[in-house]
Design a protein that fits this description.
Helices cover 79% and strands 0% of the residues. By secondary structure, the chain is mostly helical. It folds into two domains: 41 residues; 35 residues. α1 crosses α2. The longest helix has 42 residues. The N and C termini lie far apart (82 Å).
Length: 87
């Protein structure tokens, strides 16, 4: 029975329902896989760009480098004063 009747769904409607359900489940699985698969490559892309592209470095890393330099200078000054206790 290919067509719907007042009492039941037709085989075409049932087939379309399950094909759609499988496609939705497949798309969810593909999305999860791609987010896990692409994550290392985005970190690699960030690293390569930070190492090779000076404009990218200036735009995204200048503030971080300044903060790290400041933190290291404060640490060096702190260690020079000797105002710490060895554990």
């Amino acid at each position: 029975m290919l067509r719907n009747t007042p009492l039941s769904w037709g085989s075409l409607s049932i087939a379309m329902h399950w094909i759609t359900a499988l496609l939705v489940i497949g798309m969810i699985a593909a999305g999860v896989f791609m987010t896990k698969f692409a994550e290392p490559f985005s970190a690699l892309q960030f690293t390569v760009l930070a190492l090779t592209d000076s404009h990218y470095r200036e735009e995204f890393l200048a503030d971080v480098v300044l903060d790290v330099r400041c933190a290291l200078a404060v640490r060096a000054r702190y260690l020079e004063r000797g105002s710490y206790r060895a554990a």
